[in-house]
Amino acid sequence: MPASRSLSLAPVASLAVLVFAAWQGVSTLGDTPAFNRELRVEAPYGGTRPILTATMYDTAGYLYQMGYGEAHFIANALMQGADLSTITVDTMREHTARAASLAEASLELNPASAHAWQLLAESLRGTRQPERGLEAFRLSYELAPYSSSLASRRLRFAAGQSEEAVSDPQIRAGIERDVETVLTFRPQQIDAARESFPEIVDTVEARIPTAE
C-alpha cells in the first residue's frame, strides 16, 4: 500500500477506535443502575439511591449498599424519624432476608467482595441459617484477612457465635488478625472486643507493645 494512502487512512482508523471506545463505554454504563432503571431496587428509607451514590455506576457495589441499608433499616428508620413501635419482628425478618438476597445478587457479580460476604454472613445469621453464615464469614476472612473497614464489624459478628465456632482455628486466627488491626488503626474501638475476647486481646497486645 502506498505511504500516502496509509497516511490518509490513519485518521479514519483513529476515529473508528474512538467510536468503538465510546460505544463500549456507553454499553458498560448502560448496564448500571445509574442508566438502567430496571437494575434499581427500592431502599428501606425510600427511593432507589444508595447512601454512597457513586455505586450507582457499579451494579455489584450498588446491590451491596442497598443490602447494607436493609440490614440496618432500624438505624435508617431512626434517621427518618419513623415510629419504631410499628416495627414488628416479622418486619425485621423481612428486611434481613432482603439484605441476604441483595448480598447474594452482589456476589454473583463480584464474588471477590469481602464486604458482601460479611453482609451475607450477618444476614444469614438473622434468617437463622448459622452454618451458611459461618461459611460466608470464613470467605470474608479469606478475601480480606486484614481490613480496617471490616475488623470491628467482624469482631461483633464473632462475638455472637458459639464457643465451638470461635475455637475453629481459621476463625480464631481471623479474630486475632482483626484484633491486631483494630489495635493498630482504631484502638478506640477495642473495648467491645476486649469484653468478648479478653484472652485474645491480651495475647495480641503483648505482641504490639505500643498499642494503647
Number of helical elements: 11
- How much β-strand is present in the residues? under 5%
The average pLDDT value, as a whole number, equals 85
Give the H and E element order: HHHHHHHHHHH
pLDDT under 50 segments (min length 5)? 19-27
Overall, the morphology is globular
Notable characteristics:
globular, mainly alpha, 212 residues
Architecture overview:
- By secondary structure, the chain is mainly α.
- The chain has 11 helices and no strands.
- The protein has helices at 3-29, 59-71, 73-79, 89-109, 114-126, 130-143, 151-159, 163-166, 169-185, 190-196, 198-207.
- Helix 7 (151-159) packs across helix 9 (169-185) and helix 10 packs across helix 11 (198-207).
- The model is unreliable at 19-27 (pLDDT under 50).
- Keywords: Signal.
- Residues 1-21 form the signal peptide.
- This is MxaK protein.
- InterPro entries: TPR-like_helical_dom_sf.
What are the SSEs and their pairings?
Elements: H1 3-29, H2 59-71, H3 73-79, H4 89-109, H5 114-126, H6 130-143, H7 151-159, H8 163-166, H9 169-185, H10 190-196, H11 198-207
Helix pairs in contact: 2-4, 2-5, 4-5, 5-6, 7-9, 7-10, 9-11, 10-11
How would you sum up this structure in a few lines?
Helices cover 67% and strands 0% of the residues. It is built from eleven helices and no strands. It has helices spanning 3-29, 59-71, 73-79, 89-109, 114-126, 130-143, 151-159, 163-166, 169-185, 190-196, 198-207.
